[in-house]
Amino acid sequence: xxxxxxxxxxxxxxxxxxPQLQQAIRLLQLTRLELVDMISxxxxxxxxxxxxxxxxxxxxxxxxxxxxxxxxxxxxxEMTSEVKGEGEGADEFDWENYLENYxxxxxxxxxxxxxxxxxxxxxxxxxxxxxxxxxxWQLQLSNLTEEELxxxxxxxxxxxxxxxxxxxxxxxxxxxGLPVEGVERVxxxxxxxxxxxxxxxxxxxxxxxxxxxxxxxxxxxxKIIQEHLSLLKNRNYPAIAKRLGVSVERVNRAASLISxxxxxxxxxxxxxxxxDIIPDVYVYxxxxxxxxxxxxxxxxxxxxxxxxRRILAEGLYGQPDDRKYIQEKLxxxxxxxxxxxxRQRTIYKVAKSIVKFQKDFLDQGIQYLKPLVLRDVxxxxxxxxxxxxxxxxxxxxxxxxxxxxxxxFFNAGIPSLQGEVMASESVKSLLREIITREDPKRPYxxxxxxxxxxxRNIHIARRTxxxxxxxxxxLSSSERRKVV
Length: 484
Prior knowledge:
Oligomer: single chain
Strand order of the largest sheet: 3-2-5-6
Shape: extended
Radius of gyration: 32 Å
Distance between the termini: 91 Å
Number of domains: 3
Largest sheet: 4 strands, mixed
Structural class: alpha+beta
């Protein structure tokens, strides 16, 4: 057998994802803030792009007559022939025809009704006090040596968002140059700072520090925390009373005192700040029909710079490479504008389809949410499921029932005993309602919840009820039980 190396031509078809297509796909899954940041970055890098100022767009609106505004159609970005952006076909594009027939100015936003300018975003910004700042301020007011101050700074700087100290005393001792006994003294002092119990090494130490600060100390409560914390978690008060040799009523009073303590002292200072959700889509009911409106507030509107358009139209090129450079930047600018426009159109189509499928939810609430999968919307608007998945990621819709993420409307179906199908979110809402109305002394077990759902013609397994309960962060029946 002889091995031979040959070159054989072969014709195949394959899908190639161009950089422009990758950009269009990436734009679909960006949030509003990410989209604004990306546009701002492109404005810095591409000299052919410029933002249409609000004042300029209002002046253009004032100059146009009322009849012009009504009769002139909104220019469609799809009228421009597609720019492939691959190979050496840059010189074949008809720039003159584009500059004569294509208008990059986006539709003008509706001007403010009150005629007043909105305050700048910086006026709403405030600097909150962090847990480190609050504790470091108290540390500076304490009568400590330089080594103790250094050790205290190390301790405060290594607290987690709940206010717990997870670093070993030996590590702090090595960094601050203070003996371990001195580091522990500083730690005990910081634990007396506000909030009391901060810098504790575990939950037991945190609760004991807070109990020690009360004017009337409760020895039973201290003993419960030291020896029977697991029984307290499960609210097994009779077992605690038997082990301590006291009445259940006495244990209940001690448990009531412990419940008023703060298990996470750094909660008020730690964690991320809650951010207001800005909807991407608004849904209004007008004359009995739901109207979908995109929220483009704050998103810059782009166009090609007039100076470079004149250069292309008149052929004013200083150097041979100038033409190639300007054409590349123009191609990039056009593709970005088209991608943004296509993103908005796709979001609108998806939102319109969701409104059509979930009309009962918009009218009557979460109990009437229908089962929906990505394929249903994809087939309705003739798009791929992956596109629907990207569009619905981190996008929010303002509805008459509240603000929801677009993915909220996609739910698996749960069959009922009557053959009907119910959305999983509706079942969760029903579970939450049942648990809210239960007797605190005798909470429903998961098996009992299964039976109650079957009485409402909903067939669901116990493990599914447990999973839904954990998803909604609802405790088990033993942990929800209250002994009075």
